Every structure is written in C-alpha cells, then in structure tokens.
Protein: Release factor glutamine methyltransferase
Amino acid sequence: MSGCEPGESVGAFLCQAGQLLRAAGIEGPRMEARLLLAHAMGCRQEDLLRDPRAPVPPSAQAVFRGSLAARARNVPMARLLGHAGFWTLDLLVDGSTLIPRADTETLLEAALDALPERGGVRRVLDLGTGTGAVLLAALSEFQFAFGVGVDREPAAAALARANAARNGLAGRAAFLAGDWSAPLSGRFDLVLSNPPYIESAAIPALMPEVALHEPALALDGGADGLDAYRQLAAAIPGLLAPGGRAVLELGQGQEAGVAALARAAGLRPLECRPDLGGVPRALVLAGP
Structure:
C-alpha cells in the first residue's frame, strides 16, 4: 500500500493495516490495527510502539491477517479479541450474546442509588442475562447477594456461567436457560433486565457491527420495540420482594411507553436515569 514501507516488521504491518481499515470506513484505524496486532502477537500495544522494526512472527502474521479481514467486514472488535470490559469485570464474548456496552452500566448506577443499604440485598435476578454482565457487576457491588441469571439461549447461559468463574463469582451465581421468568420461584430484592428493544423494522438500519453481527434474538423487540417489556411488566410484580426494586434498560424514546406498561401492571416508576449521552436509559420500578 502507498506510504508504507514494505516488509514484515511491526511498523510495516501497522501502516498497511491502518490504511486497509481506513478504506473500510473503520473509525480509529491505527488504534484498532494496534489492538489486533498485539492480540495476534500476545503482547501489549506498548511493546509494538517500543520497537516498530521488530519482525512479526509468521504464526502471528496469519492470525493478524485473518482478524484484519474480519474487522474490515465490520465484525466487532470484541468478537475478534474474545473478551470485553464491563463495569470492573472482564467478560468472555461470543456470537450467542450481545457485546456488553457502556450504556448498560447505567443500570448498575441506578440500582446502587435505589438500594443504598447494600448489605440488605440478598437475592438478585437478571432476566435476559446474555454474557452475565449486569448480574455479575451487581454481585460485585452487593457482596452479600446471590444472583440468578436467565436467558432464552442455552449457549448464553453457558457463557455467563464461564464469566462468573472467570471473575471469581461462580459460587454466588446460577444461570438458567428459559423463557424470562418461567423457570423461577421466590422473590428478589433486585430485578435487572436489558431486554431486546429495537423495533423489528429498524434493525437493518443499525450500524453494521450490530445489524450484521449481533444475535437478532437479543435485538428484536417486535413491531414497536416493547414486546419484551410487556412480558417483564407482567412478571416483575410476582418476583419483587417487599421493598425491592427493578431496573430496566430502555431504548431511545421508550420511557413513556415502558412506564405506562409498568403502571398498568401495578408497578411504580421511581426514576429514569440518563446515560452519559443524556438518553433516558435505566427505569427504576418499585412494587405496588
């Protein structure tokens, strides 16, 4: 590629990779190239910058080229690296679940403020657990609690189980495959959920990393985006312990619709917490 020195050095590979990713429309192409090459070589990004003339081993070249081609096709970076950060955790990711996003951390902030007596929270439920991100982050903060995560996809429940072990929380969490609250009995001090909430017709217009590479089951909220909330509103009153709280993630523009569903089910909306972009993101609910 023009402007790059030929060869098999770190610097040559990074230059060529940056140009390829830029041409593919990837934001921050040089930074992403460094992430992929460091991953392929099993080193830190700082090591690449320290000696740009160092050779790239043939085995790492093959891995790097494969990852680079996939990233140019908009495969998410976290899928290529195999893990993603969330809250204070490092989580394995695969194609069975959504990649955890920073916006979802708003649920944890809202839950911590809604239940300031952390020692009193003993049972936590996460409906649609995915990677287990929300439940495991909650358990890391509510340190006397035991958590249950439910997901319709058995592979997601298995991944969440692995993430609990990865983060030292396996003894305080159980993960079930089932349809929302169907496999559950008992009541919980905190119920959390980041459900599918994208309108079906809007999914093809999402950014390619999401529309093409995230599981449709975890995105599709039905014609109006509210199908999952209807099920949650019906289930949560029977799941909340006295004084308990539920916190639901919302899509943009859904606050009024979800709050109305909650009120109709006998729940009381207490707060809607915005994310860092100012979008109302976490709806806090109390029981009747």
About this structure: The first strand starts at residue 83 and ends at 86.
